[in-house]
Design goal:
Blueprint lengths: L1 H17 L6 H4 L1 H27 L4 H5 L11 H9 L3 H33 L4 H11 L4 H4 L1 H11 L9 H20 L4 H9 L4 H12 L1 H16 L3 H6 L8 H10 L6 H36 L1
Length: 301
């Protein structure tokens, strides 16, 4: 027993001496740390200008002339000054919300119908339609077709009309929206659609009870894409609308910076905050729906 114990002792100590030490926490999580560092870096790049504008909007005029980021005294009267200087600002803000909401709803509705039809109804010429939609994305349509859009709007009597902006906005966003919904409906198995048809459901009921719930993430994507395009549209509104009270916020913002005389930086920053706030709120709401849809998709899968 003693010889055996003596023989086992050096082997155990040798195995302990030869074992490699466990890697540290940094080495184990090095890739995750790098990914989070890159994400935080780009997040700061995005948030820094927004924070600068927000802080600038509440700076006093002397603080705005200094190089300090944080103001010594807060001045919220710049927002009052903006509403007093631009008398039509509440109306312009409502116009932007109205045109953007109508554009998003109409475009989404048309894109859902077209995407479902191209994938599950398989009409003749579907490939030609998809090709035409893809080709249209390679042209600067807003610039090339600006004259034809103006003539069409003039023929329809929609010049200098806030509601008249909805038609060209929807038309210009249909191509990308239809292609997105087509790709989403391609993920819906044909067997589910055929099973609903066998159970007696028509195409309309099949679309809204089977198809749409399975492409909810695509609906959120379309919402984001169309919201960005409609909320920030400048050229069409400037060309088709002459009355200041019927224009949307991007045109008013450009006029405040260049065409309405001298504006101090805090006043301009207040206008920027007023323009950006509804968009940030809408994106926050859309992102919650987006992640909720992803979680539900994982659970159902």
């Amino acid at each position: 027993m003693t010889v055996e114990a003596v023989h086992r002792g050096p082997i155990a100590s040798g195995s302990i001496a030869g074992s490699t030490p466990a890697p540290g926490w940094f080495k184990q999580n090095r890739s995750a740390i790098v990914r989070h560092a890159v994400i935080n870096f780009f997040m700061l790049i995005i948030l820094a200008p927004l924070a600068w504008v927000l802080v600038m909007s509440v700076k006093s005029l002397p603080d705005a002339m200094r190089g300090d980021f944080w103001p010594r005294t807060f001045d919220f009267t710049h927002y009052t000054y903006v509403f007093e200087r631009i008398a039509t600002l509440p109306v312009n803000l409502f116009n932007s919300i109205y045109v953007t909401a109508a554009t998003v709803l109409i475009t989404t509705f048309c894109a859902v119908l077209a995407g479902y039809a191209l994938v599950h109804l398989r009409p003749r010429g579907a490939g030609l339609v998809v090709t035409a939609l893809l080709v249209s994305l390679y042209f600067p349509v807003r610039v090339v077709s600006l004259i034809s859009i103006y003539e069409t709007q003039h023929w329809l009597g929609l010049i200098n009309s806030t509601s008249g902006l909805i038609l060209p906005y929807v038309t210009l966003q249909l191509a990308i929206s239809i292609l997105i919904m087509r790709s989403m409906f391609q993920l819906v198995p044909h067997e589910l659609i055929e099973a609903a048809r066998i159970d007696g459901a028509g195409h309309w009921r099949t679309l809204w009870t089977v198809g749409v719930p399975m492409v909810r993430n695509g609906l959120v994507v379309i919402f984001i894409v169309n919201f960005v395009a409609a909320w920030g549209e400048y050229l069409l509104c400037l060309t088709l609308v002459d009355d200041e009270a019927k224009r949307t916020m991007p045109v008013v913002l450009a006029a405040a910076q260049g065409g309405q005389g001298y504006w101090a930086w805090p006043n301009l920053a207040a206008v920027y905050v007023i323009v950006v706030t509804p968009g940030i709120l809408a994106f926050s709401f859309a992102q919650r729906l987006f992640f909720k849809g992803l979680a539900e998709g994982v659970v159902k899968g």
